[in-house]
Design brief:
By secondary structure, the protein is α+β, with helices and mostly antiparallel strands. It contains 3 helices and 12 strands, in the order H-E-E-E-E-H-H-E-E-E-E-E-E-E-E. The protein has a single domain, classed as Lipoprotein localisation LolA/LolB/LppX (outer membrane lipoprotein receptor (LolB), chain A), CATH 2.50.20. Helices cover about 15% and strands about 45% of the residues. The strands form 2 sheets. It has a 10-stranded antiparallel sheet, with helices on one face. It has a two-stranded antiparallel ribbon with strand order 2-11.
């Protein structure tokens, strides 16, 4: 009985330590991101999605904490909302359980691996895994599973802006298109040679394909102040 009690105490301590470590790592990552109050950046967006022809797009992204985003581009074609402006806060706004998984090398850097399990049934995301740089506490990679849209992955390279802020120089957003569910955020010309085939009942055959969005960032202007009017939605006349 004593051995069982000791084992239970040790197990409880280990689980508590895991949660504490995970929360501390996430908090440091949030603090790193929160140093950036606002920014303006030029981006080049390349979309690679089977069945679609989408030209490369140039745009300017305006961001202001905590979650204000405006995209300025005449030709803005498509960008899944999860990749438009990556913020760790967007994954951590609701209640969740954090689990420290260990350490892993990724792109020549040592990373903490932390899993996030959202609590409750009102969240589309089922599980998210973060790879967090041990030195700079920036998020190098994210893999997330959703109830509706399948899985997606975000991979980031960083630049040291003004010798003070770590912000993405490139982001690669990869997502699955399952069966007939092409994301509603996608707009572009369907390739006539790759249209979905229909079965004998006239129904579209299911398929699974991978889409990719590559975003290259340049000319950052950080913490210069941005008016809230930039983010106001203009009403159509």
């Amino acid at each position: 009985m004593k051995k069982l009690f000791v084992f239970f105490i040790l197990f409880t301590v280990v689980v508590s330590a895991q949660k504490k470590d995970a929360e501390q790592i996430l908090e440091k990552a949030k603090n790193t991101f929160n140093q950036v109050k606002d920014y303006v950046v030029d981006v080049k967006i390349k979309v690679d999605v089977e069945f679609l022809k989408v030209p490369q797009t140039n745009a300017t992204i305006y961001f202001k904490q905590p979650d204000k985003v405006h995209v300025d581009s005449d030709k803005f074609a498509m960008l899944p909302k999860e990749g438009l402006n990556f913020s760790p806060l967007s994954f951590l706004q609701k209640k969740y359980t954090a689990i420290y998984e260990g350490e892993e090398n990724y792109k020549n850097s040592k990373n903490y691996v932390v899993k996030i399990i959202p609590l409750g049934n009102d969240n589309d995301i089922v599980l998210t895994t973060f790879w967090i740089d041990q030195n700079d506490y920036v998020i190098r990679k994210v893999e997330s599973s959703t109830k509706i849209s399948g899985t997606f992955k975000i991979e980031m390279d960083y630049a040291d802006i003004d010798n003070n802020y770590h912000l993405p120089s490139q982001m690669v957003f990869t997502f699955n298109v399952d069966k007939t569910n092409i994301p509603s955020t996608i707009s572009g010309d369907v390739d006539p040679d790759k249209r979905q085939k229909k079965n004998k009942k006239g129904e579209a055959d299911g398929f699974t394909t991978t889409g990719k969005v590559i975003i290259n960032y340049s000319n950052y202007k950080v913490n210069k102040g941005i008016s809230d009017s930039i983010f106001e939605v203009k009403k159509k006349k």
